[in-house]
Amino acid sequence: MIQLRGVTKSYNGTIKAVDQLNLDVPKGEIFGFLGPNGAGKTTTIKMVTGIIRPDAGEITINGKNIATDTLEAKRQFGYVPDSPDLFLRLKGLEYLRFMADIYEVPQQLRKERIQQLAKRFDMSDALGDTIQSYSHGMRQKIMIMGVLVHHPEVWILDEPLTGLDPKSSFTLKEMMREHADSGRTVFFSTHVLEVAEKLCDRVAIINKGKILFCGTFPEMQQHFQSNHSLESLFLELTKHE
């Protein structure tokens, strides 16, 4: 579970990227975090993962405070950033072993998990190659595999479907569903509103650092007394902001 209470972040002391944000992302559901460019999505995710500190407010992950109990909080989640261009000089297998070392995954268990993940993402034949030789989609897949190798309770995914081929995209969505159905948490941002409408149990729409709506898609339709798509409601909701 992820909880944000009164979280605020400003840049240059004037521009509020995130403004008094309150959010609950419970266990057992896929939670979509939606918003136009510059709305505060990535800033929020970077605060949740401890990459940047909020100016005010509190963030907890499974009850662990990211500011005061940082290591324990970070053990709770796996994070896929919005850019997969990391650790380019390592071979795929070296990167996965490196991630397993960080999270102290036992040797036999890591071997099984790497094999399973490589099979699901069609990466078995590429693990001996350097990441810089990978296509964008392959880099995205190896990053996803790296954060899943320690089987984290909470998945935090920033635009995870970008660059994935249809089969890999389907596989990841399938795995997200499995993870949530097992009583764990999936928190992800996406620009692909059709995917969010079909995949998410609940969504939050953020714009200019404030939550405009949080709930299920049917609740959103009921709120706006409309049977339009998520895309139509999203555009309507954000156009005047």
From TrEMBL:
- Tell me where in this chain the ABC transporter domain is found: 2-233
Q: By its UniProt entry, which SMART domains does this protein fall under? A: AAA
Q: Which InterPro entries match?
A: AAA+_ATPase, ABC_transporter-like_ATP-bd, ABC_Transporter_VariousFunc, P-loop_NTPase
Key words of the record: ATP-binding, Nucleotide-binding, Transport
Q: Which Pfam families match?
A: ABC_tran (PF00005)
- GO molecular function annotation: ATP binding; ATP hydrolysis activity
Coiled coil region boundaries:
none
Q: Does the keyword ATP-binding apply?
A: yes
Provide the leader sequence positions. Answer: none
Is ATP-binding found in the keyword set? yes
User: Which named protein is this?
Assistant: ABC-2 type transport system ATP-binding protein
Q: Say which species the protein is native to.
A: Brevibacillus centrosporus
